[in-house]
Amino acid sequence: MIRLRPARRAAALAFAAACALGLAACASGGTSGTPSGNVSVKSGGSITYALDEDVAGFNINQIDDNEFVLQEILDNVWPTVYVPTPSLAPKLNTNIVTSAKVTSTSPQTVVYHINPKATWSDGVPITAADFVYEWQADSGNPKFKDVGGKAYLPANTGGYNQIKSVAGSDGGKTVTVTFSKPFGDWKLLFEDLMPSHIAKKVGFNDGFQNFGPPVQVSGGPYEIKSYTQGEDLVEVPNPKWWGPKPKLSKITFRFILDDNQVPPAMQNGEVNIANPALASVAFNSAVRAISNVTTNVSPGLEFQHIDFNQANPYLSQASVRHALAYGTNREQMVQRIVSPLTTKIKPLDNRIWMPIQPQYKDTSDGYGAFDPSKAKKMLAAAGMTMGSDGYFHPDSGPQKGKDLTFTLSTTSGVPVRSQIEQLFQSDMKAIGVKINIQNYSANTLFGTVLPKGEFDIAEFAWVQTPFASNSQSVYCSYTDASLCGSNYDHYSDPKLDKLFVEANSTLDPAKSANLYNQADAVLWKDMVTLPLFEQPNLYSWSSTYGNLVPNPTEWGIPWNAYDWGLKS
């Protein structure tokens, strides 16, 4: 599932291949420049991972909690059928299901055999009931209701809304999923399975928002032991775990919202791992100066972008959105922010595929070009007059006769984000648009401001998955809120909806990739959002630990935390 990342969604061989292809700046400090996979480690010990934000809640499948940091926390807590790997290929998690096979294509039918040993940490078996609940909660079907008769509020309904039925047999250990229409990305389904026996009592929407016993039920190698808001979250081995025993006795996720505090914390051993949302030159230099720390920079599936809220009467006009895009110097942003880390990243010309994916192509058709003169002409043609103060004045609407003004928002306290805002503000001033900056905490921006549409322009990051169908919830028509829960921009285009439906229902990978690229071309033509650049991921960790392997997907570096340990 595509994840929010506000500030900033064989492994070793994959990283080395990326370096060989020139996709990353693969330098390091400390003892090693490559991910430390397949290393002998001992049992016991603890590790502390610095997260750049706190969590909004604990249900990753719920729209308000759909954050990258929460996915990292739940990687080893809530079970997943297919795990996204560093090579971008999904791997069957045989600890959860021993097999998953397409047994029919007409209708498409997938049969899962749940591992007989699979059990929730409270002793309740993991069964077909958990698959059924996941489908019902994430399908967006109004006939399925949450506790209290409320509609479910899923973060993404893609794929689940194409399922006709989910049935259990063999005492609940066999699951048969029948689709109403084909779904090519079926392997992305049943990620972060919830304990249905708990969710049915406490509720999907609200039952996992606050820390308590429901949050502590685990179906993975670790379970959440404690959580202190604004400070940390602690995981310990799940005593009911039936798979290989995890090596570390404790994993602490420490919330450090100011990136400047992370290098000193690594220097004195308070923090052992860091992956800043937006790596800066200063951060890179600081961690590389620390002895016995491994640092590498690699490409990922995360990208920075600017969102235009079409509920705003001026931003509802495509010509105004295009003008703002033509007035934005994306190349300058890349040169100032990214090039000091790696020179291989360029302005991003696709929202659905990232440059590290073979399906990526430039679908912009020139709409992402920097052309301030054209931007001014488009604003004038949109019914605005240049004032003596250097700003356009709308001839009608709520800002009639006043400076054309928009508020730009992102998460507060992140220097790189401030730099993006300042560059954008300067670019907009040059074309006659006034930008006011109003930033928020991550919890407020992603828990309230974006979901409620209380913004004009926002800058943040999406962390993609290898599955393009996950993008549907971000861009499909806002009129279908049950399907498009991540469409914060109130955008709607039936042509795009049709392309997504066709792409999602196509089992031929080449054909579906072409359809997704056609969909992105529509997004450029409508200028729904403005992609800025693929975010390079910087990872640093103490070299005393082994088997830390960065994952460019929405699972992040903790994807294999069960293998982490102190080197023998």
What is the topology?
Layout: E1 3-5, H1 11-20, E2 41-42, E3 46-51, H2 68-74, E4 82-84, E5 90-92, E6 97-105, E7 108-114, H3 128-138, E8 163-169, E9 174-179, H4 196-202, H5 213-216, E10 222-228, E11 232-237, E12 250-255, H6 262-267, E13 273-274, H7 281-288, E14 293-298, E15 302-308, H8 318-326, H9 330-338, H10 372-381, E16 384-386, E17 392-394, E18 405-409, H11 415-430, E19 434-437, H12 442-449, E20 457-463, H13 472-475, H14 494-504, H15 509-526, E21 529-534, E22 537-542, E23 545-546, E24 565-567
Helix pairs in contact: 8-10, 14-15
Could you tell me the CATH topology label of the largest domain: Dipeptide-binding Protein, domain 3
Mean pLDDT: 91
Give the DSSP E fraction (strand runs of 2 or more residues): 15-25%
Number of helices: 15
Structure class:
alpha+beta
* Low-confidence regions: 4-33
The second-level CATH architecture of the largest domain is: Roll
Total E-strand runs: 24
- The radius of gyration over CA amounts to 23 Å
Distance between the termini: 36 Å
